[in-house]
Amino acid sequence: MKHILLVEDEQHLAFGIKYNLEAEGFEVTVAGDGPAALKVIEDDPAGVDMLVLDLMLPGMSGYAVCQSLREHGLDVPVLILSARTLPEDRIRGFDVGADQYLQKPFDLEELLSRVRNLLGRRGRSGAPPERVVHEYEFDNTKINFDTFEVSVDGQPLKLTHTQIKLLRYFIENEGLVVSRAQLLEQVWGMASTPTTRTVDNFIMQLRKFFEVDPAQPRHFLSVRGAGYRFVSQAESE
Description:
Blueprint: E1 3-7, H1 11-23, E2 27-31, H2 34-43, E3 50-53, H3 62-71, E4 78-82, H4 87-95, E5 100-103, H5 108-118, E6 135-138, E7 141-144, E8 149-152, E9 155-157, H6 161-172, E10 177-178, H7 180-186, H8 197-210, E11 220-223, E12 227-230
Parallel strand pairs: 1-2, 1-3, 3-4, 4-5
Antiparallel strand pairs: 6-7, 7-8, 8-9, 10-12, 11-12
Helix pairs in contact: 2-3
């Protein structure tokens, strides 16, 4: 049974979310503030499979909770659930390592769908990916997607959960042009957004990690007016 840590200080909302997640077969622990959430994880780091995280928490913001997890090397999926609506709020959430962002008030079925997506449970109408990659090498890079181990020139490289998901999506769709909308939906679970900066910023990060010259990428290529394309055999834009 997957264990979800729900970090929400509004008791009535926490009760309703917990009830519906448990009805879906999940084990749910509720924490009312950031320090309490971190204590749950500190006591059993391997025992939490996912966080559903509010941003406006007493004592410690959800941003700080997520950032603390990532700084300590914990790659547990994080779904931010917040009433904050500005694009800057979403961007900041992704920048500190969140995987998805769902705005309050939310649709229950969408919340449950996103939880299943992050935990790798396919919905009834969903189809498995045509290609599933566990290990991959290109140029001087080696990647193990099962263990989240990445090395460049033999040196270990630490990526966030979202960076790994984005990298894997590119590799599993090697050679294909993928749009920003596709990436937002498949990697971040976002149907739409008023800005494309989130995707572009993450592409810049991948280029910094894996390109010899990030200003002249040869693997993570821009396709004008269409999106991006990954190729293992180096090309020039």
